Amino acid sequence: VSQSRYSRIDLLGRSQHNLDRKSMRELVEGKRVLVTGAGGSIGGELARQIASYSPARLIIVEISELGLYQIERELRDTYPNLQMTCLLGDVRDGAHIKQIFSEHNRTHHVL
User: Which of 96, 47, 95, 98 lies closest to 74, judged by CA?
Assistant: First the structure.
């Protein structure tokens, strides 16, 4: 399973894009970053990439308890010094999301 995540084959025939890792590091390093949908394929990959750039804190939000548990375990195992907050929540619940942002002000929301 982990090998498929790093496959260079794109079944949709799209061209590959090179990431500007220096700019990504400057955007994330030392900042608080919130990722919604962190237990999904896209949100999980964003959380992994962000964790690798030493954010001050990574806040992950996921609707699925299992998805949240799995990505939390992976990130804690891979980045033991990562400051991370894991929250169960649904982005469709506007009041809850507003509460999350008020509690974690000055946070960059990625997805």
Answer: 47
Residue 8 in this model has a pLDDT that exceeds 90: no
Q: How many CB atoms lie within 10 A of CB 95?
A: 7
**How far apart are alpha carbons 7 and 1 in whole angstroms?**
10
**Tens of pLDDT, residues 64-102:** 999 999 999 999 999 999 999 999 999 999 999 889 988
* CB-CB contact of 108 with 81 (8 Å): no
Q: How many residues does the chain have?
A: 111
Report the distance separating Cα 88 and Cα 99, nearest Å. 13
